[in-house]
Design a protein that fits this description.
Blueprint: H1 2-15, H2 18-23, E1 25-33, E2 39-40, H3 42-55, E3 56-67, E4 73-84, E5 98-110, E6 113-121, H4 123-130
């Protein structure tokens, strides 16, 4: 069940289907992102996704999913293929640069819903590629 939920989450991500992603999340969901603050709740996550979609166009490929036997934990490794669309805060200026880098996510799940996702990627490598 946990692998199916994580797969649906990433399928929705790649389809640009925010509602589909939110449907995979529990009401007490928390999001920890590489180099960022924790977000609590679906609304905060939806706001984050809106910002990200304005600044970046990304597709995840080479996704490998892993899950614990009891279905309470999962992980994914993938390749992020992206285009930097709009300058994001104090980051380098966006000029439509393409980037490709490894990434990963760690999940906690309960009752078939994601309660936590922690996302990792190499920010220094992303900066090198878009600078």
């Amino acid at each position: 069940m946990s692998r199916d939920t994580i797969q649906r989450y990433y399928d929705a991500f790649n389809a640009g289907d925010l509602a589909g992603m939110l449907d995979c999340l529990s009401e007490d969901f928390v999001h920890d992102v590489n180099e960022g603050d924790r977000r609590s709740g679906k609304e905060a996550f939806a706001d984050f996704c809106g910002h990200m979609n304005a600044c970046y166009k990304e597709e995840l490929t080479d996704i490998v999913l892993m899950a614990s036997a009891d279905g309470t934990r999962g992980a994914a490794e993938f390749t992020v293929n992206g285009t930097y669309l709009k300058t994001d805060g104090n980051l380098p200026e966006a000029k439509g640069q393409s980037y490709r880098l490894p990434g990963g996510g760690f999940f906690s799940l309960k009752d078939g819903k994601i309660t936590r996702v922690t996302t990792y990627y190499n920010l220094a490598e992303w900066m090198r590629q878009v600078s």
